[in-house]
């Protein structure tokens, strides 16, 4: 009886929910004891905010309002006309204006720092993943080429990159390589992530290629395919299907590790969080929001990866 209760999925979900509710309550109580003032109301403006677009007077003169037009009769008798459709007047008809007075304005919704930070994070992650995949594919083929020199070059690359921390590699690339070649910090961050993840992708692809049945190689050669045609048309399509779940996992890890580029002053999601904390002194709300945004990105990717994996399994591709 006890065993059946323990293995019941619904009861397990209830206990898991209770666990996280209690954990949240504990953290809230801990925060209350340090006399922390929660300011969740300030978070939305960092997603979207209203930008004020003003109309300013080009001279000293009198304001004349005519329907959707505003005229300023300057001291030199010249007339400046403005279209004020959608604008809200801050002065009345007939008021005297001085040069640079803001006599009307309209509001426009603009993406806030969080949205811009997410965009930079996504852009860095996608570009880095594409370059990392190309690097990984080249290294994997080098290691499987049967040519000792190429195999050793690829092996040393994988060993060095996987054996050193990403943060150290980022510093080396930014302060040495990027300085020598005058690379912008954005591309220094992208190349650091690409080189690092290229080593892991190389091993994933190498394993996937080696997992293809030898009969596939022999069949391709018997049909007169060259080595390039065999790899392009027969082996790689099957290997990529096998490697897809692991590649999605690497992309998820890359998105999380992209937070390190904030150290070299790239305004990604993490750096945006640091700037908001510095301006508002609200670390709890800010970092919880940043964590939720990263979780949202990785959860979407994980969901897409699981759907693709299920489709391929249904078709016999994995």
Summarize the topology:
Elements: H1 2-7, H2 9-33, E1 48-56, E2 61-66, E3 69-74, E4 79-83, E5 88-89, E6 96-97, E7 102-111, H3 113-144, H4 148-162, H5 166-181, H6 185-210, H7 214-222, H8 227-257, H9 269-280, H10 283-314
Antiparallel strand pairs: 1-7, 2-3, 2-6, 3-4, 5-7
Describe the model.
Belongs to the binding-protein-dependent transport system permease family. HisMQ subfamily. Its main location: membrane. One of its GO terms (molecular function) is transmembrane transporter activity. It is a multi-pass membrane protein. Pfam families: BPD_transp_1. This protein is of the alpha+beta class. The chain has 3 domains: 32 residues; 63 residues, OB fold (Dihydrolipoamide Acetyltransferase, E2P) (Beta Barrel); 202 residues, MetI-like (MetI-like fold), CATH 1.10.3720. The protein contains 10 helices and 7 strands. The strands form 2 sheets. It has a 4-stranded antiparallel β-sheet, with no helix packed on it. Strand 3 and strand 4 form a beta hairpin. The two termini are 38 Å apart. The model has no long low-confidence stretch (mean pLDDT 90).
